[in-house]
Amino acid sequence: MTSNQLHYFTKITEFFGRVLGPDYEVALHDISDRDGALVALANGHISGRKIGEGVSDRLRNIIDNGEYVDQDFILHLYGMSPNGKILCSSSMFIKDVVGNLIGVLCINFDDSRYRELSQKVFNLCHPDALVDTNFRFDESRVPANISEHTPRLQSAPDGSAYDIIMAAVKELDLSTGNMTLKDKIQLLSYLDEKGVFLIKGAVKDAAKIFGCSQATMYRHLSRIKEQF
Fold first, then answer.
1. How far apart are CA 137 and CA 197, in angstroms?
2. What is the Cβ-side half-sphere exposure of residue 42, based on CA atoms within 13 angstroms?
3. pTM higher than 0.70, yes or no?
4. Concatenated DSSP letters for 167-228?
5. What region does 100 belong to: left with phi over 0, alpha with psi -120 to 50, or beta?
6. 211: nearest Cα among 94, 76, 69, 116
7. Which residues face 80 on adjacent strands?
8. Residue 36 main-chain phi, psi, to 5 deg
9. Which of 7, 77, 118, 175 is the most exposed place for a label (fewest CB within 10 A)?
10. pLDDT by residue (tens digit) across 131-173?
């Protein structure tokens, strides 16, 4: 970027950061060099990134694949930040007069506060009623030809799904304290395939293990089902 362009988009970055508020990180990358360094950042507490850091691996792939050539922006991609937050990200491609990419303006939304609030409101209106009504174990989901040597997930004596999920964590050789987004998707896909989320309380117990709200768990499960 030229100094005039950098000054202009730096002001835009600051403006959007103040207007949108503390749940939106606004980041400006200068693509003049290979690293695509961060040159302006508003509400950087959301991801924990600092000025001078390079682009994310996903944004680097988007740039390397030339996805910016035929479009001016990409909207609403979900990903995980360096500090473990799940963010909804949108990126605008800044080009010169002949179409060369010179910068990327990214807006990353952390909706965790709103999800927690919505879950509290939901619990006030429907305290466990939705889960009790719609999430019960359905034995018809269990294949008739399961081998006797197939590892089985056993529930806790009180009927809780917590031990079932923890058994799956152990079986997949994962660690609840250090799971990547890929690990979480792998675990959820495995549990869903086994029909674990048809057990009463499974979504609630999974949310405790993941350290998130039940609303977040339902969102993850919806995305997994959409993929298949």
1. 8
2. 23
3. no
4. HHHHHTT--TTS--HHHHHHHHHHHHHTTGGGSTTHHHHHHHHHTS-HHHHHHHHHHHHHH-
5. beta
6. 116
7. 86
8. 60, 50
9. 175
10. 445 544 444 544 444 444 333 444 343 446 777 788 888 888 8
Is the pLDDT at 72 greater than 50, yes or no?
yes
Output 170-178 pairs: Cβ under 8 A, ≥24 positions apart: 176/209
Residue ranges of domains in the chain, CATH in brackets: 3-110 (3.30.450.20), 113-227 (no CATH)
* Contact in structure between 81 and 111 (CB atoms under 8 Å): no
Using the predicted structure, report yes or no on whether residue 103 has a pLDDT greater than 90.
yes
Classified as helix, coil or strand, 105 is strand
Average pLDDT over residues 67-78: 89
Under DSSP, the state recorded for 73 is E
CB-CB contact of 188 with 216 (8 Å): no
